[in-house]
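Subject: Re: docking follow-up (zinc ion)

Dear J.,

Thanks for your patience while I sorted out the input files. As discussed at Tuesday's group meeting, I've set up the holo structure prediction with zinc ion included as the bound ligand rather than trying to dock it afterwards. The sequence and the ligand SMILES I used are pasted below, so you can double-check that they match what you have on your end before we go further.
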Amino acid sequence: MSARRWVATLASTALITGLSTVAANATGNPTNGAIPPVSHCGTEASGSGNNGFVDYTQLTTALQQLETSTGGTVDVEVAGYSNQGRAIHTARVGEGDKVVYVQTQIHGNEMHGTEAALELLKQWGSDSPAAKKLRKNVTVVVIPRLNVDGGELDQRQNDMTWDEVVADFPQLAGASPSWNYNSRVGGFDINRDFHPNLDYVPAAEDFPGDSADTGWYITPEAQTSRNVYRSLEQEFGTVDYFVDLHNQWSCYATDDMESMSPLSISAKFIDDPAEFGSWPKFDMDASKRANVAVYEALQKRGKSSYGKLTLYPQSTNLPGTALGSYQLRGSAAILFETSSQTQYDGMKRNGMLAKMVETGLGGLVDAVADGSVNSLDTGAYDAIPTRVTLPSDGPGV
Ligand SMILES: [Zn+2]
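The structure tokens for the complex came back this morning:
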């Protein structure tokens, strides 16, 4: 929409939320500081689209180069295969006894996290004294672009039909397709296919399911993520941290309506852990502290819009997400939601957004490595400004 209409809708949103003082401001000049000039509502197609992001071939090459250029300090392996047979990779760096498991692009059209992860892997694998010290204290395992098929198609879902699921799990013949199946594109929202019991076997009576219930591991991509998680759990006892990097719609503001919010984060994915069995290692406070580490790393960059991050809605109850299922098993869970639908943003803004994810995730890993994350205040999490939705909401987690 045009800048004029955007300002009008911002004003009406402000009124709805009772912040009428800002509405008066927002009806003035849109470049007067209320809205940072680099921010927009994401509907003005810039033309550069996804050209700034690596495609699957480039990603694979970049990972191989990382392994070679670091002399194997960044160890790249094939963790599994997508439904269309593309290799899904892990990149592992460090020897510390704390482990951070990072997953990017479970939604194929959410690309900033992959770019940030590639840049961080380069830094973590470098010869610098800081990188060497970090590697002694932490192990980072990254799946850069879990949904490699969706990435090639620039779609949220993977590329798999319900018939293919039934072929893999004949006991599901006659069951209703799972609720997260999109028959129009022929794919599943992988981020509803998780279950806290890593050994769960799909049963017909558990379909079609719904968003308030657990998933099934019917997609090869979720199975791959689970297999990596399970092997890390066997190695480390607990997978200390799990980070999932996503994108949300562009149109969010901070709750004072002073600024657009380029990033939302969250520790909250489960309403009632007891609803899904006994999970004694579930630790909401550890998740909150980890999110505070992200928040503080970005607040240090306060002069820029990096400091304007917000909390993702805390009413979220999504046990079938990777975040929800892994958090139940004892991982501190951290959601990043970068405010952009990548096809709408220009390369300059995409570069800024990827840098922001890099700064926040890098700050978390630093805080894990030096142990400072353990002394952060959970109250600081609750004080993070909440996200205000501007019109035309898009898909979330
Ligand atoms: Zn997403």
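A couple of observations from a first look. Residues 129 and 138 are 15 Å apart (CA to CA). The chain is about 35% helix and 15% strand.

Let me know if you'd like me to rerun anything.

Best regards,
T.
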